[in-house]
Amino acid sequence: MALIDLLNKKSNDYSKYEPFIDKSPISSSLIIPHYENHHLLDILLYNLLEQNEIKKNPKLFEIIIIDDGSKIPYKLKSKKYEEQVQLIRFNKNRGRSNSRNEGISKSTHELLFFFDSDIIIPNNYFSDHWKIHNSGIDAIVVGFAEDIEYKSNIKIIKKPNIKKDYRFYKKIEKKFLDFSLGEYRIINNTNWFKDFGYGLNFGIFTLPFMVTTHNISILKSKANLINGFEEKFNGWGLEDTYFGAKAIASGSYIVPINNGVFRFLHEPRGISKKEKYFQMESNYLLYKKLIS
Fold first, then answer.
1. Angle formed by the axes of helices 239-249 and 273-291, to 10°?
2. 112, 191, 206, 241: which has the fewest Cβ within 10 Å?
3. 43 in helix, strand or coil?
4. Where are the chain's structural domains?
5. Each residue of 111-147: pLDDT tens digit?
6. CATH topology for 3-291?
């Protein structure tokens, strides 16, 4: 059966698992693909290692960085990071899917977190994921993002404004891919994704498009079951969407948390906006082919 047929038959109503209340820690591997912009990764590493949850339970966490062929290889700034951080270096750029799959293969803990390297997280972030996974649900847990200006000395004193995320509000004013022009309020219109099953769509947006790997978590056993990330995707976009599609088709729910990350606004990594759109168009055609 084609993947799209399985997606059209799958509910995302996770109500029977609520309320999510058990915040017991789960051993967690944090997988971070990285390319260039080393100063942003420095900030993220400092941010992670200052987290209350990691300081309290350091043996329950491992941080895996995959330097995906940066022109100047990334180096840890402090020896104290070496106890908690595994740094993997590729000699050439292999792409985000390959990097994440390498992280999965090297991980040793039960739960996987995928982060981009240009984000920072608020305190008590991990427990919002743990309490969902502790319910026994088969899920990809997704967080939201607020874009902020880059500051080298930023201190996190609050949660991000998650309503800045496109899944709360997105206005499409120019034709792109299969997007329909208009305004989208997906969280409100789907009751926090509960009514977003059975292939429902808002323009181009379907449930797999809610899986954005700047901050998600999934059990390692499930990531292995669906064979990780598809490495045929090149450049920007859709590899995380297809990862989500495979998980949903095999029984997973997509569950959002009322939390997320801050994402730094910064210059593109050696690619123009035109090139980025071209890569996304190519990957979108591949995505449609793979689920058909």
1. 20
2. 191
3. helix
4. 3-291
5. 999 999 999 999 899 999 999 999 999 999 999 999 9
6. Spore Coat Polysaccharide Biosynthesis Protein SpsA; Chain A (3.90.550)
Quote the DSSP letter at residue 264.
E
State how far the alpha carbon of 276 is from the alpha carbons of 67, 208, 237, 270, 282, in Å. 21, 20, 9, 10, 10
- Report the alpha-carbon distance of residue 241 to residue 55 in Å, rounded: 33
Model pTM? 0.95
Three-state DSSP state, 191: coil
User: Is-contact 145 165, C-beta < 8 A?
Assistant: yes
Specify which of 102-116, 168-182, 274-288 reaches the highest per-range mean pLDDT.
102-116
Report yes or no: 189 and 210 within 8 Å, Cβ to Cβ.
no
Distance in angstroms (rounded) separating the CA atoms of residues 208 and 213: 12
DSSP 2-29: -HHHHHHT-----GGG----------EE
Exposed / middle / buried, residue 10 (Cβ in 10 Å: 0-12, 13-18, 19+): middle
The yes-or-no verdict on residue 153 having pLDDT over 90 is no
